[in-house]
Each structure stands twice: as structure tokens, then as C-alpha cells.
Design goal:
This protein is an alpha/beta fold. It has two domains: about 250 residues, Metal-dependent hydrolases (TIM Barrel, Alpha-Beta Barrel), CATH 3.20.20; about 190 residues, no CATH class. It contains 16 helices and 30 strands. Helix 2 crosses helix 3 and helix 12 packs antiparallel against helix 13. The longest helix has 17 residues. The chain is globular, with a radius of gyration of 23 Å. The N and C termini lie far apart (about 65 Å).
């Protein structure tokens, strides 16, 4: 039996008292109030933090290593969509995440990926139909139907889309939404389609860019996840809603690179919310309570009989964890993780041969303006521009002086001609960057100032069967990602250090984005408007159709 003393934060009662908690066999056996007030100098006991929507794969770490870094920040559980590895390895990939997550004392709660492939306009490595999704929804480790990104299919009543939603409802599990930009009647139609009114299970959305959009979805009955990841950052735009809708808001990261995870997690969002003057108890309700209630998680809420999933933090301003407990086990102490991991096995699906620099050549075909992707820092959405690329020897080439660079997607599953277009706002002045993390099908995506550098960066990734790479003259760097071309099976802190180094390298090459590799990975995410690039060509995410491109 363990005894913990501290200032107990009782969120539902909106009280803080000095108390002793007895832990026995992984659960809270008894709580004794010692003083009916806070005691200065003592730590504060709060429920463990929960990331209510995250793709573990985006951390470039296998689940066990993700957990090892996350518990240091007081995170005890995640609501995890294994959509990325499913697009590469199918059912085997989902099972891999479950099995590896079970090797550590951390509460992963996986979803059944709803959109594999995400669209029919790209080449993926697998397909999960209604039968596979229905089977996954019977797994006890699968808590929900992952984000239904095919919102046009939902609005159109597509047969397969609706059958997957009905399968979740039959299993008594909620459906996560994904409906960027939907407002008014369309938002209401989408919300009604994914909700299960009989079971009282509303849908969620983590794609709101403005408060007005989020309010439309809240009024439609949805719950809103405030997202703050390595690339998509909506915290400042949406945090005010927590004051007026405390029962319907959760925090999530969605996609978080290893360097970001090493520095902080949901505890950082709590600190930022306090700094903005948001009610403390509302903040902790969003960070700790609402995900447990919505997804029916087996995560403790500091009640007698609950699993002992809790965090002792230094104060309620910065939320710096002193100790983290999961099922009564001490998993982090004073900034050091106590989770032990072993090297995970490798699965992959990577078949393409090396490329040639001539593969990226773009004949001008008469010159003139072409559609150009405009990347936006801190957002997944892009703008569509019409610009005339630099013309040289009857070919369109990158023009770093105007920040107009070539972007290419190379099919990683078989030999194929790369798709090449142009992008603005990456800022590279020399060299190229490439990655096998390219949502959602995870073909190889690259941006560069010349064809030779593009070729070398892509071939670095191909040689390792996955990774993030940069080329700058004679200098080359790569972080290998052998697990599905998405994750490393190395020590998480070493991966974070290696990623930090290659991230710094591309910034020295001129990249101006806060998270250039994360932003690069979303330039192939077709379900987010306005203009994206797949291995099959340039795609309009608003009309859901290809547009005329340069190659």
C-alpha cells in the first residue's frame, strides 16, 4: 500500500484540500481530507493528463517509446488513431500498435481507422473495408471509430462510409469526426450522421480553424478538440470556448514530432490556458475528465475505487510534474521516465527503386501560370495560387529568390513516375528535404531548389526504406524510420535529438516554417483544402478532384 499526500484538486466539486490518498493494488483505496484548504509548499494531486486525439506514428516513435517520453509530462493515456500505419500495413499495422503498446504501463486507447485509403486519389499500401473495420471494432483495445475524414462521403450518404459508421454504433462506440471548414447546415448534417442518438454518443471534431466554425459544430451537438500539435495550432483561436462550453471541450495534439514531445505535452496546454485567465477547473476538466467520460476510458478520476492514474505537479500555473502514476505504478519521477522498453520489431511496406534527377524535370509546355500550393505555417489548410515558375532551357525550375520551389511525391509502393508541382513558403535557399511521412498514404514527399538535390534526398529515404532527410551540397542527414517508414524503433530521446539536428539543418538551409518536416508531411493530405499533391497529381481538396498541374 502507498500513501500520497498533497493538495487534492477535486475538479467536479471545484475544491482544493490537503489530503492523503491510499493506493492499494493499483487503485485508490481511500481518501482522507487532512485540511480543508491548500497547504503551501505541498504538491498538487490531479488526474493524469490525456491526449484526446493523436497519431502516435507522427512522433516517429513506436508506442512504447512514445509512452516513455509522455509520462514525464504527466500524460497517462492517449486516444490514438493508428490510421497512419494502417495506410501502410493494413490490419497488421493496427495489431502492431496494440501489441507494442501493451509492452509498457501506459493506457493507449486505439481507434478503428475509418478511411484506409483516405481517398481514391492516391496510392496507399492497404485497404480496410467495412468487414475489416467491423472486425476491429470488436477488439477490446479499439475504443472508437477513428476520424471520418471522408466528409463529402458522409454528406452524400456514401454506402461504405455510412456502413462503417453504423458498425461503430452497433458496437456502442463513438465516431470521431473530421470536417474542416464545414459550417451551418452542412455541419449539422455531418454531426447528425456520425452521432448515435440512441446511445447518446455525439461525434467530435478536431479540425476547427476559427471560433465561429467550432461554435457551429458545438451548436450541432459535436464535441470540440482543441488541437495544438507540431504543425497545426488552433489553441489561441479556440481556447475561449472552454469558458462557455466546459463539458464539450478536450485537448489534443493530433500530430507531434519527437522534439515537441520531449519538451512538453498536454501539461503545456494547461499552463497556457491558465496564463490566458481560463478557469482552472474547466482546464482540468478538458485535460483529464472529458476524454474519460466521452470515450469511456479505463482511466482513473481520483475517485475511491478508481485506477490510480494521477500526477503530482509543483503548482497549478506551470503544471510541472513531480511524479506520475499509472495503475498505482510510479512511471516518472522529477523529469525522468521510469518506463523500461526493449527494441521493437520492424514491419514495413516499401518497394520503390531509386529515382533519377531527370525524373523531376518539368517541361514548360508553352510557359505561363500554373497552380501553386501555398503552405501556411501552423495550419493544415493551404491556399491555391496561380504563378508563373522560372523558365530555364524550356523547363520550369525552382526559383528560391521568389520562394517558389518544386515539390514532388514519389510512390513508395511500386515504381512510378513522380508527381511534380510547385509550392511556396518553405523558404529553402539551397538543397532539398524529403520524408516518407506524407499523410495519409505515406508516399515519399520532397521539396527542393534543384533536381539533383531532390533526387539525392529522395534516394536517402529509399535507401533506408523510410526516414526524414536533408541534402545541402555535400552535407547529408537522415533519421531512419524503419517501422512502416513512419517510426524509429530506437531510443526515443536519441530519435528526438537526431530529429532536432535535421530540423535545424533545413532551417539553416533557409526553411522559415516552425516545423518544416511536419508541414511537408501535410502537403499530401488531400482531405484538407485547398490544394495538395498526391503521387497521382495535384488535387483540389474543396472540389475533391484533380486539377491541371505541370507534371
Amino acid at each position: 500500500m502507498k500513501q500520497l499526500k498533497g493538495n487534492l484538486v477535486m475538479i467536479a466539486q471545484r475544491r482544493i484540500c490537503f489530503a492523503m490518498i491510499e493506493l492499494d493494488e493499483g487503485r485508490i483505496k481511500k481518501t482522507v481530507i487532512l485540511e480543508d484548504h491548500e497547504v503551501v509548499g505541498e504538491p498538487y494531486i490531479v488526474p493524469g493528463f490525456i491526449d484526446s486525439h493523436v497519431h502516435i506514428e507522427s512522433s516517429m516513435l513506436v508506442p512504447s517509446e512514445f509512452a516513455r517520453l509522455a509520462v514525464v509530462h504527466g500524460t497517462v493515456a492517449t486516444v490514438s488513431d493508428p490510421h497512419e500505419i494502417a495506410n501502410v500495413c493494413g490490419m497488421e499495422g493496427v495489431q502492431y500498435m496494440i501489441d507494442n503498446g501493451n509492452t509498457v504501463p501506459f493506457k493507449f486507447n486505439f481507434g478503428a481507422p475509418s478511411c484506409v485509403p483516405a481517398t481514391g486519389f492516391e496510392t496507399a499500401g492497404a485497404r480496410l473495408g467495412v468487414q475489416e473495420v467491423s472486425r476491429l471494432l470488436q477488439y477490446p483495445e479499439i475504443r472508437y471509430l477513428s476520424e471520418m475524414m471522408n466528409f463529402p462521403g458522409v454528406l452524400a450518404g456514401d454506402t461504405e462510409v455510412m456502413e462503417k459508421i453504423r458498425a461503430a454504433h452497433r458496437a456502442g462506440k463513438p465516431v470521431d469526426g473530421h470536417a474542416p471548414g464545414l459550417r451551418g447546415a452542412a455541419a449539422q448534417q455531418y454531426a447528425d450522421a456520425i452521432a448515435d442518438p440512441v446511445a447518446g454518443l455525439p461525434g467530435t471534431d478536431h479540425e476547427c480553424f476559427t471560433e465561429e466554425e467550432a461554435l457551429d459544430k458545438l451548436n450541432a451537438g459535436m464535441k470540440i478538440l482543441i488541437r495544438e500539435g507540431s504543425a497545426a495550432r488552433n489553441f489561441d483561436a479556440l481556447i475561449g470556448l472552454l469558458e462557455t462550453h466546459p463539458d464539450a471541450i478536450m485537448f489534443c495534439s493530433d500530430d507531434k514530432h519527437p522534439d515537441s514531445l520531449e519538451s512538453g505535452h498536454i501539461n503545456e496546454l494547461c499552463a497556457r490556458a491558465v496564463a490566458k485567465g481560463i478557469d482552472l477547473f474547466h482546464i482540468l476538466q478538458a485535460a483529464c475528465i472529458n476524454p474519460v467520460l466521452h470515450y469511456k476510458l479505463d482511466v482513473g478520476l481520483l475517485r475511491e475505487g478508481d485506477p490510480a492514474d494521477l500526477v503530482l505537479v509543483e503548482d497549478l500555473q506551470h503544471f510541472k510534474p513531480v511524479r506520475t502514476y499509472i495503475n498505482g505504478m510510479l512511471v516518472a519521477l522529477n523529469g525522468k521516465s521510469l518506463i523500461n522498453t526493449s527494441r521493437a520489431p520492424v514491419i514495413n511496406h516499401f518497394e520503390c527503386p531509386p529515382v533519377l534527377s531527370s525524373d523531376f524535370r518539368v517541361p514548360a509546355r508553352g510557359g505561363g501560370e500554373v497552380p501553386v500550393i501555398e503552405a501556411l505555417d501552423g495550419q493544415l489548410i493551404t491556399n491555391r495560387l496561380l504563378l508563373a515558375p522560372l523558365l530555364k532551357e524550356d523547363c520550369f525550375v525552382s526559383d528560391p529568390d521568389r520562394d517558389l520551389l518544386k515539390i514532388a511525391v514519389v510512390n513508395r509502393y511500386r515504381k512510378a513516375v513522380p508527381a511534380v508541382s510547385f509550392v511556396r513558403n518553405f523558404g529553402l535557399k539551397r538543397g532539398a528535404m524529403a520524408s516518407s511521412v506524407a499523410h495519409d498514404s505515406h508516399n515519399i514527399i520532397a521539396v527542393g531548389v534543384d533536381d539533383e538535390s531532390l533526387c539525392r534526398a529522395v534516394n536517402l529515404v529509399i535507401a533506408e526504406k523510410g526516414g526524414v532527410a536533408a541534402v545541402d551540397g555535400e552535407r547529408e542527414a537522415i533519421v531512419p524510420l524503419p517501422v512502416a517508414g513512419l517510426m524509429s524503433n530506437a531510443d526515443g530521446y536519441q530519435v528526438a535529438a537526431a530529429y532536432t539536428a535535421v530540423d535545424q539543418m533545413v532551417k539553416e538551409m533557409g526553411a522559415t516554417l516552425n516545423a518544416p518536416f511536419m508541414t511537408l508531411s501535410f502537403m499530401a493530405l488531400l482531405v484538407i483544402p485547398a490544394l495538395k499533391l498526391s503521387d497521382k497529381g495535384l488535387f483540389d481538396g474543396q472540389k475533391f478532384e484533380f486539377v491541371a498541374a505541370v507534371k
